[in-house]
Each structure stands twice: as C-alpha cells, then as structure tokens.
Amino acid sequence: MESLYVDARGHAQPQSNGKVESMNQEVPEESLRPWLRGPRARLKLLRLMSGSGAKCGVMLTRLQRPVHCQKEQADATASCSLCGLTGFHLPSTHIHTPICQQLSKVSTLPGKVETAAIETELLRDYRFGQQQLIEIWGHACAIAITKAFPLTSLAKKQPTVLVVCGPDQNGSIGLVCARHLRIFEYEPTIYYPKRTPNTIHQDFTVQCEKMDIPFLSYLPTEVQLINDAYNLVIDAILGPETDHTDVKEPYAGILVTLKQVKIPIASVDMPSGWDVDQVTSDGINPDVLISLTAPKKCATSFSGKHFLAGRFLPYDIQKKYDLNLPEYPGTDCLIEL
Amino acid sequence: MNHSSTEPAETIELLRYLSKVETAAIETELLRDYRFGQQQLIEIWGHACAIAITKAFPLTSLGKKQPTVLVVCGPDQNGSIGLVCARHLRIFEYEPTIYYPKRTPHTIQQDFTVQCEKMDIPFLSYLPTEVQLINDAYNLVIDAILGPETDHTDVKEPYAGILVTLKQVKIPIVSVDIPSGWDVDQVTSDGINPDVLISLMAPKRCATSFTGKHYLAGRFLPYDIQKKYDLNLPEYPGIDCVIEL
C-alpha cells in the first residue's frame, strides 16, 4: 500500500510514487499534488479547507514506520485545534497531516515562567488592573461552569456547588466565579479557610457575602458529606504562581479530601497541586479544567473537558509569546478545547 | 411608558426608572458598602455595552466595507465605559476608532486609555465638523460622552460642539446609559436622538419615552440593592448580561 512518511516537522516525504490515501473525497485531486510541494501550497489548501469547513480528517496519511525518536514523540503531542485529537498516539488510520500540525502549534504552551511574565506585562505595560483581570477571569470561569454543568443537568434537588478558594489570586478568581454562579441561579457555597489581608481579595469576599453566599467555617473530612451535599466542587485553591512542592496546610489536607470525592471537580487555571511545567501523576484529578488566558504546559496530558476562558488578551502579547490561541466563537468569552 | 417584567399577571411589578439622585446613591452604595471597585464596575459595564452593540448591530449587518465604529468618549465614567466598550468591540473584530478629546488625570481612566492604545485602536486628534465625513467613514457612533452624573444644563466645550455635530449625523447613534446632554429626570426634546440606548443597571427616568431600541446591560447587581430600590429588573435570559426591553 503506497503511503507517505510524515517526518517530525510535518513535511510529507513520498515513499513510493507519492500517492496519498484519501479518506474523504471532498478535496479535489488537483490540490493534492501542489500540497506536496511546499509551504505556499499548504496555505492554499488551508484556505480551501477552512472555506469548506473541512476537518483535519480530510486527508490521512499512514506512517511508514513507528515513531521511535524522542524528538518526534515530543512534537507528536501537539493537538489539532480543528478536530481535537492529539499526537501520533492514535489509531494508525488517523494520523495528522502537515496541515493539522501547522494549525495546532499548541507546543508553545506557557510554563510557570512565561505565565508569570505575561501577567507582569499585562499589569505593568498594558495597565490592566488586578481587580479588572480577576473579574474577567472569574466571570469567564462561571460561564464555563454553566456550559460544562448546565443547571438542568445537575442531579441533586438544589443546584449546589462547593467552591474551595485558596489564599492568592486563584482563590479570588474562585470568589468572583461563585458570585456570578449565584447570579446564574446556582447555589454556591464557599470554603475560604485563609483570608488574606490583600484589599482586593477582601473586597471580593465582601461582594460574595453581600450576595448571601454562605461561607463554610470548616470542610468536612467525611467525604460522603460533600458527595451528598453538592453537585460539584470548584477547585480554586492553587494557581500557577504557587510552589507546588511546598503546599502548606490547610491546603494539603484539602487536596487529600478532594482526591476522594466522587462528585465532579472543576479546576480553575490548573489543577491545584500540579506542577505547571509538567504532568503530575499523583495530584488531584479534575473532570473539567478551565484554563485562563492560555493553557499551561501541564495541561497537555489533561484528558477531561478542557475550556479556555478569558477573551481579552491583546494581540501583541499573543504574538510575542507565540500563543496561537484558537478563535473564539461569536462574542463568547470561552471555547472548549 | 413603563415596561412590565415577566411576572405573572396577578402581580405586575413595574420596572423602576431611576432618578439622578437614586442612580448616584446606588453607585455610592456599591462602592462603599458592597466593596465593588470602580475599575471592576467599568469593566463589567463596558463589556456588557459591547455585547449589546453586537446584538443591535451584528458584524454582518454593517453597511460599509469595514466594520468601523466611532466611539466618542467624555471625561468622566461614561467615557471610560466607552473605552472599555471599544476594547471589547476590537476583540469582537469590529474596527473602533476613539475620539477622546479631554483626557483626565484620573489613574483608572488613564489605565483604560493605555489598554485601548495597546490594542492598536486609533485615537482621533480631532472630530471633523463636516458631518458627511463621519457618515462616510463609520457605520455607527457610540455616544459615551456624558452620563447621569453630569449637569446637563452646563455642558462645556468641546462637548457642546460635539453634540451639535452628532445631532446631524445620518448613521445610527448608540448611547451609553443616557443620551448625552439629556436631563436624567425628564424627557429632553432638543437633545441628540439616538437609535439605540443601552441602560446600565437600571433605566433612567428620561428613558420612559425613548422610542428606539432599548437594552438593559450589566448583570451583577446584588439582590439586596434591587430590593431596596425596588428595581424589579426583568429576568435576563440564560447567562446573558444584556436584555432588550
């Protein structure tokens, strides 16, 4: 069977006479040959594809040989923003074409350093305010929760949600998220063990209190109580700014409890306790991840529902950090990855 | 002409239209007692305004080749809301141009200005008095000049001149919160006549006789304030932050 060898950089190398197995007959034959010849032709096909709304599965190639080299494997963990599938670790009948790899480029996910740098720039050069950013992020998180867990889909009699808030920015985003969920007619309950003296965080706390959102004074260690009382847990404990190797009490204990809950967990920005830069195997395992601004490196292996929320990033920052964010639909502030 | 909310027929609760004093009181309470931040509120309002504009004037409905929008911003809070609205319209792929004649030294206002500049939104250095130029260049004008806090009897330059120009434009005008130059408490007959009004939080008294498209934007008011001032706000659909009245 004739096939193409797709090398690690996504260039198609014809093995035999360069015939491509086409699983979808929509794309005309004339466009296949120019596609093989260079980057300009690839862009032409890209325009064709985006015009017809074709998905990346239009043309499939089959690897001539298994992927051994580590570099190839690393490049292979990119995910296609068109069809959502990731990497070469797929059934052999669906392997990404160079077009998909051109489009995905999710390999430039920010790690801990870049995330901090982006935020510093936003505050210092772009003159965004911290209060403003937290409001944007919290609102977008709440919208994501309504999409992942619509009111009508909640199993319990009351649409109860437990929001666990940490001490820093991640916690404040949780507070704003809880406030908006209240407006959207959910019934959030907040557990906010350590209140910081930071004025902005205090303001967000008062705003929630004045919306009649209950604050728990302690989190039950009896996990069944949590499973029974709430439909889901929002994990807004620790964010990318925390040192994941040094998780202090009471958060270490809370994370132990959360690992045992049976109800879904939705994490804000990244799962609390995870290392920003790499996959963590023994951390909590949320069902939903709501990445803020851009997904973090540790999210590459996240297998649950993944949203990108917070549509405000100036183009200059997107270009500077090579973020290649997907296109948000309409006026939505979030997109499912 | 009061609009009733979507309550059942037995208890028709009328939507409250606020006076100037009540508007100021609510805002003071939000900042002082409810600890909302001014920056936070302006961001919420500006974003909601932008959403309302995308509803009233969808990208595909704009007549000109480019989706250009002129945003005229005044010196106070109304102007800042216009700046945030312009920034979000840019994100929604409109092409806003801002005319912001008098920049205040207020830090928050300056921050919003820098955010817009960094989004590559052009700022005009002067507004053409030749109205046809405005009609030709833009699809619509967003009037974010004067809000309920201004004294409508004492409109200083350059705003008086701008309002004269705006009265003559042929393209649609969208006003933020109240039409600039109107008296908050009563109908003004000789002010500008916008096609669309986006009321923030709750409509103002002068809007009772407004006949154009009327939106209510900004879905964040705590229930206690709504009850205290008897606002009887309508139910927003789903997770929308804008509702057409």
UniProtKB/TrEMBL annotation, chain A:
Pfam families linked: YjeF_N
Any one Gene Ontology molecular-function term assigned to this protein's record: NAD(P)HX epimerase activity
GO CC annotation, single: mitochondrion
Top-rank lineage group of the source organism: Eukaryota
Residue ranges of the region described as Disordered: 1-31
Domain YjeF N-terminal: 115-325
InterPro entries: YjeF_N_dom, YjeF_N_dom_sf, YJEFN_prot_NAXE-like
Composition-biased stretches (Polar residues): 13-25
Membrane-spanning residues: none
Sections of the chain in a coiled coil: none
Protein name: ApoA-I-binding protein 2
UniProtKB/TrEMBL annotation, chain B:
Coiled-coil regions listed: none
InterPro entries tied to this protein: YjeF_N_dom, YjeF_N_dom_sf, YJEFN_prot_NAXE-like
Signal peptide start-end: none
Gene Ontology CC terms, in alphabetical order: mitochondrion
GO molecular function: NAD(P)HX epimerase activity
Boundaries of every YjeF N-terminal domain copy: 23-233
Pfam families according to UniProt: YjeF_N (PF03853)
Protein name: ApoA-I-binding protein 2
Source organism per UniProt: Salvelinus namaycush (Lake trout)
Recorded name of the encoding gene: LOC120053413
